């Protein structure tokens, strides 16, 4: 019973984070990959990514996190969607790229 309550609370929190992000509410940081801007919430990013957590703790007033290197904006966007509770579809063609990107962002 206890785990069911925790699962429900977890799902409610993720659902709320998705709704508020898509509605533009609580988006307090932009992740920039090349020319692509991805609006996000610092707390959600820091919760699921040690990389983002470090960036945010280093500069608590940051409003933009610029990702440098050879990262695909599409892959970063997919991983951020995954952080917010969307399904991440892995295929033979994309699994290594997604794992490499997830490793860079320190998403477990």
Automatic annotation (TrEMBL):
Residue span(s) of domain BTB: 27-92
Organism, as annotated: Ciona intestinalis (Transparent sea squirt)
Matches recorded under InterPro entries: BTB/POZ_dom (IPR000210), SKP1/BTB/POZ_sf (IPR011333)
Protein name (record): BTB domain-containing protein
């Amino acid at each position: 019973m206890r785990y069911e309550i925790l699962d429900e609370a977890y799902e409610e929190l993720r659902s709320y984070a998705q709704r508020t992000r898509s509605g533009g509410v609580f988006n307090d940081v932009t992740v920039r990959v090349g020319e692509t801007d991805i609006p996000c919430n610092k707390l959600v990013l820091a919760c699921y990514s040690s990389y983002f957590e470090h960036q945010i703790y280093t500069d608590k007033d940051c409003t933009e996190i610029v990702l440098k290197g050879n990262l695909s904006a599409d892959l970063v966007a997919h991983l951020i969607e995954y952080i917010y509770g969307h399904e991440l579809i892995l295929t033979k063609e994309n699994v290594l790229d997604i794992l490499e990107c997830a490793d860079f962002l320190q998403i477990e």
